[in-house]
Description:
- The structure holds 2 protein chains of 2 kinds.
- By secondary structure, chain A is α+β, with helices and mostly antiparallel strands.
- Chain A is built from 4 helices and 5 strands.
- In chain A, the strands form 2 sheets. A 3-stranded antiparallel β-sheet of chain A has the order 2-5-4. In chain A, strands 1-3 form a two-stranded parallel sheet.
- In chain A, a hairpin with a 5-residue loop joins β4 and β5 (79-85).
- Chain A is globular, with a radius of gyration of 17 Å.
- Chain B is of the alpha+beta class.
- Helices cover 52% and strands 15% of the residues of chain B.
- Chain B has 28 helices and 24 strands.
- Chain B is elongated.
- Mean pLDDT of chain B is 84; it is low at 13-17, 433-437 and 479-485.
Amino acid sequence: xxxxxxxxxxxxxxxxxxxxxxxxxxxxxxxxxxxxxxxxxxxxxxxxxxxxxxxxxxxxxxxxxxxxxxxxxxxxxxxxxxxxxxxxxxxxxxxxxxxxxxxxxxxxxxxxxxxxxxxx
Amino acid sequence: xxxxxxxxxxxxxxxxxxxxxxxxxxxxxxxxxxxxxxxxxxxxxxxxxxxxxxxxxxxxxxxxxxxxxxxxxxxxxxxxxxxxxxxxxxxxxxxxxxxxxxxxxxxxxxxxxxxxxxxxxxxxxxxxxxxxxxxxxxxxxxxxxxxxxxxxxxxxxxxxxxxxxxxxxxxxxxxxxxxxxxxxxxxxxxxxxxxxxxxxxxxxxxxxxxxxxxxxxxxxxxxxxxxxxxxxxxxxxxxxxxxxxxxxxxxxxxxxxxxxxxxxxxxxxxxxxxxxxxxxxxxxxxxxxxxxxxxxxxxxxxxxxxxxxxxxxxxxxxxxxxxxxxxxxxxxxxxxxxxxxxxxxxxxxxxxxxxxxxxxxxxxxxxxxxxxxxxxxxxxxxxxxxxxxxxxxxxxxxxxxxxxxxxxxxxxxxxxxxxxxxxxxxxxxxxxxxxxxxxxxxxxxxxxxxxxxxxxxxxxxxxxxxxxxxxxxxxxxxxxxxxxxxxxxxxxxxxxxxxxxxxxxxxxxxxxxxxxxxxxxxxxxxxxxxxxxxxxxxxxxxxxxxxxxxxxxxxxxxxxxxxxxxxxxxxxxxxxxxxxxxxxxxxxxxxxxxxxxxxxxxxxxxxxxxxxxxxxxxxxxxxxxxxxxxxxxxxxxxxxxxxxxxxxxxxxxxxxxxxxxxxxxxxxxxxxxxxxxxxxxxxxxxxxxxxxxxxxxxxxxxxxxxxxxxxxxxxxxxxxxxxxxxxxxxxxxxxxxxxxxxxxxxxxxxxxxxxxxxxxxxxxxxxxxxxxxxxxxxxxxxxxxxxxxxxxxxxxxxxxxxxxxxxxxxxxxxxxxxxxxxxxxxxxxxxxxxxxxxxxxxxxxxxxxxxxxxxxxxxxxxxxxxxxxxxxxxxxx
Lengths: 120, 877
């Protein structure tokens, strides 16, 4: 059960996973497996998602009515549940993204002078 | 949580099964897709399948977590846990029974104590707005007493803007009720008309006293208690206006009080009579008396404000008092105490100590059950590992274990509640008079019990649950690991629990031991009297003008003469100051011949006795003689001193033949008798001065008869003797001296028994804990012991090994306990007699006693270890 953080993969923090899912769905509806894969791809495989942990997040997002789900058929003719962003979800994504970018800016702003000092 | 989310969740409740099925299917399809992908990337089929599973993580966990998002799951989980817990408990009836009984004792005792505390200390008095009712008194440091003199009361009553109502009662005393089938003695409260309004209680019939009633000419009215009305008047609704003959005086019944109303100081009251401070007693002087004062503060007036206002008045009166009162008065200060606090001041500390003691018992019980659970957790390691492997989260596991322990606690609590009525009944003997009547289990008590259960459940369940959930999966799943000892953490935790149990038991046992030692020391105190086969009875004549002093003298002479001729009577006497009772009077300022005029600043008790009193009571004569027929009414005034008074007045000399000045009369000392512990064995000796009833007649004497056999069978004979002399004279307070002695010790004895019971309970639980741990350890190590024996270890080696392990824990537990006791025993200081709270003998005895018991609890299983057959042990799986 114990999860060992492996190498250079960063464990996803609760909350940022929500944002990544919403972000993935911005390009159109897809199923759980698709979401997992595209998160891995988007982050160039540095962010590790244990696929199982996606599902509680998906339920949560449904409850917030940010996404909806419906059964469909994949290109391999497999039955799968497809998730789609709602209008509320889109708004949430914008808000979250803005907040996230501000956060990243703040962090890099703190880090950069330190680097430059080191460089001197 | 947004309202929308709430709404979705709510809707979801009604189609619960859908997303669950969905989820399974969804995950299956996810896994298939991943597997497909893996296959396409060139993995062999087997590996593709397992890689997909690995990538996904714990399937069950993901499902559970997903479902939990919908909230409904929580209730469902709880229900599951409950059912599972019940099943586990049912499957281990022995374990469950031991745990539940242990907890029942702990929780039951706590609930019982709390029931009494609730009734006595927390429930407000049954008066309207009881917070405003205060007890007003004056503390006199020199005498260590709370006393209010009538002039103070009169002056305080004139203070404005402090009290709504301000009342007083004279000392409550017995009164002779005649006119019925046979004379009775009932309690009469003499109270000012404002007394009832202070408490705010209205009569059920008629009225209480009107302002002005109580003075001469207006004092022949009576308010009945509910009991007297029911008993004496058969609950006659037309009782108002009827006559009641009390101490030979006719009173008109004007009212009946409700059933629950009793004088705050005693429950045996029968009647209230009006009282007013006589005008001459409002000024400092010989006529003044002592009253008990209560008041109802005006709304918004604080205690300090009222106290300050009365203090001003009191200080203004400092120079008005004659000696010896002036001395006391100058140092006295006013104190206002909420009536409830004042009434409970004696029981409060004892109840808190008891609450602390049962709290410790509960902790010990919890530690014991925690140990049982820990032991079981070890044998459940594999079960837990399996549950974790198939997807139970750590929190979920802990919750499951806590559910089980709380179930146990609630079971224990339920059983404990059954014990409560019994325990409360016992406890109520503790609490004086009217306060205890209302103790019963109510919602508040039940709530507390429930809290007790849940807290206890979490307390003893948490450590095992945490320990169990931390287990490494792979080790537990592997076979055999459990046969070689348990994990270090586990063993430490279990030993720690035993140390806690032993330590807490030491604390309780030391407490009980200190009380026992005090009690034993007390029993060795020479009371100065010989209580065997002595019958006593209060035979008080009505006060006032009905009997003059020659009448009083004649009455007691005739009664004693009759009694003396009864078979089995050895000596018959009488006294105004019955041992083990409060003093009826106290004096100060005695002067021996040749000493300065202001006399000795020594408080003494002047008693009036008949010549045979000393022989009847068994008080030894040290020098001189007892009173005899020479000490007639007109003869030389004589006096007998007790040893301490003789020593104070005539240090180093023989007092016999010397003269002393007492109340304006020179009296010659004819004898010196041994000291008696008048107020009880634990109280210091109060010097006593005896005069003869012939020379100083009194109407308030108690008869004392020394018999050759069982004195109680003579009660009817004594009653007839008294009735033959005066058909209107009842007996009251008929008791043997042994009863009185025993009653004087009862509070200490009750405390001792109660704390002793708790201590024994604690030791039993702790001993079973020690036993459990070592027995468990023997079972766990059977295999190891088998190996050792097979390798050539002899029985002594095995025994030594097992004992050494136990002894370390025992010694640590006792050491911890002794340290704890050193800190906590101080709370008992007020309950001890000539025993320091750190009494080394008690500490040593306790340690030894508990050590022996604990060693025995280790020895028995250890012996079993030595009997292990290596062949059986090695085969043992």
